[in-house]
Amino acid sequence: MYVADGPGGVLLQNLDGEDHALPPVSSHWSESLSVDRGLLFVAQGNAGIEIFYITDPGHPEPVAFWPHLKALRLTVAGDHLLTSKGVKGVELIDISDMQRPVIKDTLPDIHALDITSEGNLVYIASKDQGLLVYAISDNAEFIGLSRLSTPFPMNHFDLTVAVRVHDGIAYIANGRSGLLIVDVRDPAEPRILSSIDVPGTCKAIKIAENKAFISSHHGGINIVNIADPEQPIFLNSIAMSGLSRGLQVVDDLVYVAQKEMGVTVVPVPVMAETIDLLSRKQMQVVLPSPDFPGRYNLQINNQRDSAVSDGVVEYR
Questions:
Q1: Do 101 and 73 reside in the same domain of the chain?
Q2: Is this model's pTM higher than 0.70 or not?
Q3: Per residue in 202-234, pLDDT tens?
Q4: Can you name the residues that pair with 218 across neighbouring β-strands?
């Protein structure tokens, strides 16, 4: 796993449980990553963009370094790289020749907080203009399709925003305003489906198996059931501190970057199979067997409160 570790550069983390000393992939300050067809793209803010071959994950090979191209967030769409530069807008870059990237189009007047793509469609979470949807033309130009303003009383996105699109639905982790879910199956007419409060300040989001995993400042990892995007259900949360934007979900494990504490791995929480109330003070719970041994917490939620009993279940 590759982790954008801010001043620590890009770190390579083993996922096999073995404690191997692995050198940093890049020592430059790293803001975000994107992976496409065996290539790792590293956004390094004003320092530029670095690219590596990662077909052999343990031995990444430098491909190119573009110091003249600035980026805070980036995503790959075919032979094009889309970069967000914050208040300096968005660029569409032809990367068919990795040694000679060419800027094909720009959107200079957008304060872009995050950017993602699906096919030839581009989705931009902008500070003041809401969710913007563009298409990439055959001539590698931006074609504006729609703009969706955020609803009152938010009126604009928070400064810490992450957007992901899955099966025509946009999931926007909107800082202190929780999770906003938008139908973009008709990119010319996006419409808000629902929203849900999430503890803390949302910073990153991943979609996996009908669940949205959202890391939050002061809120840990929050998990929302999105099987029905019009009726999201808050499932549970994992209390963790010092979370950055680094968040990945691989199989049944959640990997999170905890700033100077490194990378932490926790199992995806599982739901109880049956719950029987024996009395006002006792209940009996049947849990599925987890894939990973260890001591597990038991979390009980209702619509208003959540209670956690630490380490009450042990699997060997």
A1: yes
A2: yes
A3: 878 888 888 898 887 777 788 899 999 999 988
A4: none
